[in-house]
Amino acid sequence: MRRATTPFRAYLRVGDNRHLLHREKKAWKTTARDAVKKLLKVFRPATVTADDILKALDLEWNDFEDSVQFAVGTSLSVDCIVTRNAKDFSMGGIPALTPEQLIETIADPA
Fold it and tell me: Under 8 Å CB-to-CB from 1, ≥6 apart: which residues?
């Protein structure tokens, strides 16, 4: 894992990041917009290509969305995948962190 002083390469899937913000729908509308803008200062969204989709299909994982995230992460050589369910990525070769673990890693890289 890279030290916090070095930028992470990350695949940002904006549509699923509300769990980083707040679980109540009312708070999502205003809080999420601000939070996504802040996330975009650190992370850049990735483009999903046809090759990524084909690689994801070849993985034959139970959760296709996870396989797409993993395929994109692999093609971009990301440092980690941030997810609420890290065990879904246990069969891959990219470390999977919960949002809390990512924050801890960034806050205390030692």
Answer: 79, 80, 95, 105
